[in-house]
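Q: I'm writing a short explainer about GH18 domain-containing protein for a general audience and would like to include a description of its predicted shape. Could you first generate the structure from this sequence?
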Amino acid sequence: MVHKVIVPEADYALLAGKQKFSCCNIVVFTIIFLLGFTAIGILTYNFFKTAIAEEKLVNNVKVPSWMHWMWNHNSTNATAFKSTLKPIKEHYVVCYYTFEDNLSTTKLLPNNLDPHLCTHIIIGFASVVNCTLNIGKNVTSYHQVVALKKIAPTLKVMVSVGGAENDEGFAEMVSNHSNRKMFIRSVLNVTKELNLDGLDLDWEFPGWAQKADRQKIQFIQLVYELRKEFDHSGRKLTLSAAVAAPQAIIDQSYEVPSLAEHIDFINLMSYDYHFYIWYYPVTDLNSPLYSRALETGYLTSLNVNFSANYWVLKGMPREKIVIGIPTYGHSYKLYNPANHKVQAPAKSIGETGELGFVKYSDVCNFLKNGALKVFLNDSHVPYSYKNSEWISYDDINSVKQKALWIKANQFKGAMMYKLNTDDWNSTCSPNHRFPLTNTVKKILLTN
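A: Of course. Here's the predicted structure. Afterward I'll give you a sentence or two in plain language.
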């Protein structure tokens, strides 16, 4: 809206007498004004372009310049950011494992798991039903996974509740103290009965769909009450949360300092940054470590490095951040097979995989059948293509780069999502099971 301002008549007197500008003066003034305005515009554009795109190395941490500026001007985080990174005495390799439906022809069974591969196995996914933890019909499978602790006594086995398609009951459960108390009581009963070592909260995402700010607070109340009851249980129960990577969801869904106070660690879901979707029909990378050189603006935030450091900026200690690494990729169907670079037009998900999700073993078969591979040195991840099929994924080289980055930047560890989609049956290389997870393990769990 333009506000109408009444100007006193006296102001017009300056224009009515001998002092008014000549035509020449007006032209000169206009030219000077436009030149000055253009110069300011160019400087402003260059500043923001640099602030968005440029990255700085600070204490071996590669961060966007604008984030570096925010750290230096934020009294809460400036000291922590500038200080020497604290060495991690014990890294984690947290592995999600899901019970697959009976229709799956090649499903990973509990007796095919390697008990020495991970520090934590998180079983997914339980649900919230009538404000209680419901593990479904897989009780026998839970017992089989827990039995692995007899072979590897230091292994922790947890249960994850929620998931992208299984978190409908959270909103009702967190809505009041009575419902949360009922849920926590059921968690204590289930973990004790099954000899589980803790709970992982995978609510995707508090207050996001309905933009209900109260859920953001109610989620913290749940975490606080769980922490309190876990500590009073007399058992060493672990509490973790699977959390979002995009900046907008982080801001909307989490009260980070309060979450950091009561959680043991977070599992950062630093994947699915890009996949085929009708309103963004171009190829792109599932889980890039860094932004690509040509990316600007919002796109520079869609990578592992940005998300992890943004959580630090918001108040989550590095020693509580476990970085997600996917063992699957995303497939696309190209519009034009001759145009097969990143950001190439795509018309649908690809034929490889299930609903566009591609297991690492399927990627290996894709390459064996003549697909060409491109490794992007700026983003540290590969993609492959053949004819109109295009797949973004992580390979041994990219997960190695991520594990080294985790170690160098003193994050708590890596979260592998998931064991089921790693090459557990040696499709890629004979007698080499779980190659992606094993690569991460060798880097993070070897002194």
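A: For your explainer, you could say: The first strand starts at residue 55 and ends at 58.
Q: Perfect, that's easy to follow.
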